[in-house]
Each structure stands twice: as structure tokens, then as C-alpha cells.
Amino acid sequence: MLPASAWLGALRTWVLILAYGLLAIPHLLWIAAQALRGADGSFGSRLGRALAAPDALRTGFDFARAFVPNLNLSRRFITAYDNRGSALVTRYDDVKDVLRRDGEFAVVYAPRMMAVTGGHNFFLGMQDGPDYQRDVSNMRLVVRRADIAGRVAPFLHDTAAALVAAAGTRIDVPQQLTQRVPARLLAVYFGTPGPDEDQLIEWATLVFWYLFADLKADPELGRRALTAAAGLRAWLDDAIRARKAQPLPVDDVLARCLTLQAAGLPGMDDLGIRNNLLGLIVGAIPTQSKAAVQALGQLFEHPAALAGARQAALCDDDEALTRHVLEALRFDPVNPMIYRHASCDAVIAPNTLRAMRVPQGTMVFAANLSAMFDPLRVADPRSFRTDRPWSDYLLWGDGLHSCFGAHLNRVALPAMLKPLLRLPGLRRAAGAEGRIDCQGTPFPVHFRIECDPV
Ligand code: HEM
């Protein structure tokens, strides 16, 4: 028999879920009314843009978790990948369940991965199996978690500090810092600088957009992304050839790949090395830049948290700083939803009142942003707290395909933001310049902050 306090706790949680759901209704109506009054584009496109803002998305998910936690729609929201309709999953347990049942809810990216590599899949586009396990294992042998503390972290800290110091009292965060740091890490640690830094950033960003965020299959974007992919492939092919012709006395990821090749490891021929490095480069730059910018944006939205993060940065308390940065990202994660394709008829949340049958071919949106605000699993979800268990966070997926760079991200995001947070008088630039500007892309392009002279 459960004690009375447990019943009371459960009752309180359910009251909270219903209250958040009811409170969401006026907020959503207000968003719709604002969209009705706008002038740019159709009502539908204005509403879609407004609902994609992080606080609007969180509100929409508050409503869904309370009243329609699992929702099946016949409409196809994604046309870039084959599907017969869509389903939305919003509760923490169900989001994790979908991401972990990779046999039933499969990744969809293979056709575009193959277009990007010129014919081969990359492991994020694969189902579990020998090829997936071979490629992930090979990449873990060359991109080692053991490198993070002693080699990668110091490089990231020094690089970010130097970029911020060079910027003076005004800095355009993505342009001058958060795109540059991952690109420089790839140059030095991976041995893949690209023809130049700007070109590498542009290629990676376009290809990432095409693979993961071009949901409507825009032909113009497709053309630009495939041109970028061809450029990146050709550059990597040349780099591998040159390194083999003239090995360098360095211990970088490319050198390690060639060592594995010499040892005869399956999957590490030139093409295998190239495609794996291509996938990692594309996964690393736009994601880390976007995550760092959005975390900073959320710190500005939460002034007490910003003060806490600044204090942690000034005291060199990297553990506290990491907690502030990742908690900030919880409010506006890079991927608010992760999508999967039902490879067979399946039931989500089986044996519960919210059980939902999804037919084979359905595109299932597992809303990890919503999961991280589910009061059933996350304590006091609307508060900015730095004492949460790490299991509350679903910032980089879950299950088979959870992010290859997860451990790197934990170090890289605080490292990039630390020198900014230490600046005296840190503030947003005035007006629109001090807001994240994506210029119609899925990625922050400008976000200007200012400080007092150091
Ligand atoms: C803060 C930055 C990052 C975010 C927010 C992020 C997010 C994610 C997410 C959500 C997934 C799961 C995708 C899915 O299940 O469909 C994922 C997978 C992946 N990420 Fe990241 N990522 C980041 C940085 C990186 C970095 C730095 C790398 C490379 C070093 C990387 C490489 C990958 C790869 C290869 C996968 C596929 C893993 C697999 O299939 O086993 N990511 N990432």
C-alpha cells in the first residue's frame, strides 16, 4: 500500500499537468490572434513560424501532454522522406520508448545520406546491424573519449578565449565564436581543416540542413547542399590521398584512421574513412554553434541564471557552468523533436489509457523538448534548476542513435561560452541585433552581444 504522501504527490503532479494544459489555451489563442494580424506571408505560415518559437512550442506541448499526449494525424508534415502520415509523442516515457524501439521506429535519413556521400550510407542513417556497429566502433577508436579532458578541452578553452579577446567590446557570437571553435577543433584534432574555415562551415551547415531540417524538400536547397557535399567529398578525398602519400608526424583523427586502414580493419578503406569523417564534420559544426547560441539566448531570458553562469565562469567552476549551460539548452534545444519512421504497425504507450496504434509508414515525432518538461518525470520542470539528474535531459537523442558527440558537447558548449560570460558588463546589443537572427535558415547566423572595455 502506497503511503499517503505518495498519493498526494501524484495528485499534485496531475493537477499541475492539467493546470499547465489549461493555461496553455489562452497563450495559444493569443499566438493565433497575433498571426491573424500579421502581414508577411499566409496565416498558416505566420502561425507556423510563431509556434516554432521555443516558448510557444513549450506551451503547445503543455497542452498536448495534458489532453492529447499521443496524437495521430493523417497529414504528412515531412515530404523529404517517404511516409504516410504523422504522429506526435509528447510524454517523457513515450519519447524515450520510441527512440529506444529502433527495430519498430527506424531512422529515415538513408536516401539523403547516400546522396550526400555519393552512394553510401552513414551510420546515423543505418538500422542496427553489422555495418552500423562496425562504423560506430571504428569511429570510437579514432575519436576517443579519453582525449576530451587532456587534449580537446584545453584546446577549446584556449581557442574560445582567444577569439573573444580578439573581438573587443562587441561580438557577433555565431560568426566570430561558435562556428569558429568547432571548425578549428576539426582542423587540429580531426586533421580536416577544409580548404578554409569559412568554406568548411558553409559546407557542413548546408549539408546538415539538407539531411535533417529540409522537411519540405526545397529543390534549391537540395541543389546547394549537394554541391556543398560534392565539394566536401572532393576535399576529403584529396586530404586522404595527400596524407597517405606524405604521412605527417601527428596523432589526429585522420592519422588514426589511416593506422586502422593499414591494420586491415574492415570499413576503413579510403571511401569508408571519407564517408565517416564527412558525417562527423557535418554533425559537429552547425549543431554545436546552434546549441551554444541558443543556450546563451536562454541565459539572457533568465537573468538570475545568467548571473549564476557568470559567477561560475568567473570562479572557473566548470561543473556549475556546465549545469547552467545545459539547463539553458533544455529550454531551447537544437532538436525539439526527433523523427522516426514506423517500419511496421506499432503501438505507442501500450497497456496505458493513452495507448496509440500507429500504422506502418507513419512519421513519428518524438518531442524531446516536451519530454524534458513533463512533470510526470521531471521535477519542477518550468524552473531553471542546476541540480537536476542528468537523466532529465534529452538534448542529444536517446537509444541506439544518441549523439556520437555527446561527451564532447558537454565540454565544448561551456568552453565556448565561458570567455563571453566572464566579460564585464555583458549584455545583448540593442534592438534586433541583440536577438538571435537565423536569416530564414535553421541556424543562428547573427547574435550580437556587447561588454564594457576589459
Ligand atoms: C550540441 C551539439 C549537438 C547536438 C545538439 C546533437 C544532437 C544530436 C541528436 C539529437 C542526435 C540523434 C539523432 C537521431 O536520433 O535521429 C545526434 C546523433 C549523432 N550526432 Fe550529434 N549533436 C551534437 C554534436 C555532435 C558532434 C560534435 C558530433 C561529432 C563529433 C555529432 C555526431 C553525431 C552522430 C555521428 C550521430 C549519430 C549517432 C548514431 O547514429 O549512433 N554530434 N546528435
Can you walk me through this structure?
The structure is a single chain. With 454 residues, the chain is an alpha+beta fold. It has 2 domains: 52 residues; 383 residues, Cytochrome P450 (Cytochrome p450, Orthogonal Bundle). The protein is 57% helix and 7% strand. The chain contains 17 helices and 10 strands. The protein has a 5-stranded mixed beta sheet, with helices on one face. A 3-stranded antiparallel beta sheet has the order 4-10-9. Strand 6 and strand 7 form a beta hairpin. Helix 13 crosses helix 17 and helix 14 packs antiparallel against helix 15. The longest helix has 34 residues. The relative contact order is 0.15. The model has no long low-confidence stretch (mean pLDDT 96). Protoporphyrin IX containing FE binds next to helix 13 and helix 17.
Please count the helical segments.
Answer: 17
Strand content: 5-15%
Major sheet: 5 strands, mixed
**What is the CATH C level class of the largest domain, in words?**
Mainly Alpha
Provide the structure class. alpha+beta
Name given to the CATH homologous superfamily of the largest domain: Cytochrome P450
**CATH fold descriptor of the largest domain:** Cytochrome p450
Shape: globular
Mean pLDDT: 96
Question: Which CATH architecture of the largest domain is right?
Answer: Orthogonal Bundle
Q: What is the percent of helical residues?
A: 55-70%
The number of domains is 2
User: Which oligomerization state do the chains in this entry correspond to?
Assistant: single chain
